[in-house]
Amino acid sequence: MFILGLTGGIGSGKSAASNIFKALGVAVVDADVVAREVVMPSSASGALSQIAAHFGQHILLPDGQLNRAKLREKVFADVTEKQWLNNLLHPLIRQSLLSQLQACKGEYAILEAPLLIENDLLSYIDKLVIVDVPEDVQLKRAMARDNNSKAQIESIMAAQVSRAQRLKLADYVLDNSADVNALAQQVKDLHQVILSQA
Fold first, then answer.
1. Residue 13 shares a structural domain with residue 41
2. Which positions bind ATP (predicted)?
3. pLDDT, mean of each 10-residue run, the chain (198 residues)
């Protein structure tokens, strides 16, 4: 199976591009969705019970689900806790990503991940697509979408690889600085290119 990696900085429109690929019938495996699945109470991974044993039962919501906000507070306040969590979850997420990608049908599949480069997932893909917008557009769109402060979005942007680094690694770039119709046309064109390669 030919795997196309899809990523972009916060507010770049990665999800919009992903949805257009899905509408064209391309299977998409979303790393964010997989990351949520592995900590579900119903997951066979056992990750949730390990997290509760490590951090204490107060890390769970009354319905037994993970309290993501509380966990985020803990791991962002303490780098060793963040490392512990990453060591637990990253192998489980990778394993699930790979098995879901292998189960995909079609000419090619997409691995969508906001931290595809940062989490070293490049070895799992054949080609890399970057959804790109100028940083000021990124900031404006992310603030409007997430209702977060400029400082919050800037700190998220600072934690991601730089726009220049992303573009240097890209095999294909989707320029999302115009509207969704312009993005859709670029995705359709790229879809034809990938079909000819896959």
1. no
2. 11-16
3. 95 96 97 94 93 95 93 88 94 94 96 93 96 94 86 87 96 96 98 93
